[in-house]
Amino acid sequence: MGQPVPIFPDLLVESIVDSCPAGARTIVLVDGADAARPVEFATRTAEHARSNGRPAAVVDLHDYVRPASIRFEYSRTDELSYRTLWFDYDAVAREVIAPMRPGGRGHFLPRLWNESTDRSARARSVDAAPNQIVLIAGPMLLGRGLDVDVSVQLRLSEGALRRRTDPADQWTCAPLVEYYDSLDPSAGRTDFVIRWDHPDRPALERR
Fold first, then answer.
1. Is the dihedral of CA 74, 109, 17, 22 positive or negative?
2. Using CB atoms within 10 A of its CB, is residue 19 exposed (0-12), middle (13-18) or buried (19+)?
3. CB atoms within 10 A of CB 2
4. pLDDT more than 70, % of the chain
5. If pLDDT is split at 50, 70 and 90, which confidence band does 149 have?
6. What's the CA angle centered on 38, arms 125 and 185, to 5 degrees?
7. Spatial contact of 1 and 107, defined as CB atoms under 8 Å apart
8. Which residue in 66, 74, 165, 181 has the fewest CB atoms around it within 10 Å?
9. How many CB atoms lie within 10 A of CB 37?
10. How many Å apart are CA 92 and CA 146, to the nearest integer?
């Protein structure tokens, strides 16, 4: 790993969009703890794509949580559950990614579950254009075997993670640190690894 290189935020967004294969349906993974606000970054990236004439949509991983009966089976702050049961990655693969692939049905489900009401989101499928970009944003997406075209990691240091996490959610910091420390670098290449302690001054890790 080389020395991180500072990059302007707008250039970073532009670079991610430019890395998406032209004329093809593309899945972009934006991985980051909630404290990194990955959905906001994915939304900004989608807006840039749309401003350049390319359809783009964002799927928030928090709209693919499992029901509370599963998430809170061992307590509302169980660290192992947060790492392994909280989010339905299999449903993301089934309802968002597979439909975008050749031979897929060509429309994806933007939301599966309403986290606040703990009920089905009752969302309708969205038709995907032939050159559609879908950005999936949320925590602990890397290393899940998801079939994506472009992967982005908004990397926070442990200090920044703890400073920027809400007090009520501080219990998630330890499992997040453990999860990211456990990732095997040789298991797959992340296209954009971004030092994100200061979002107005990001730095891109060179490989």
1. positive
2. middle
3. 8
4. 96
5. very high
6. 105
7. no
8. 181
9. 17
10. 9
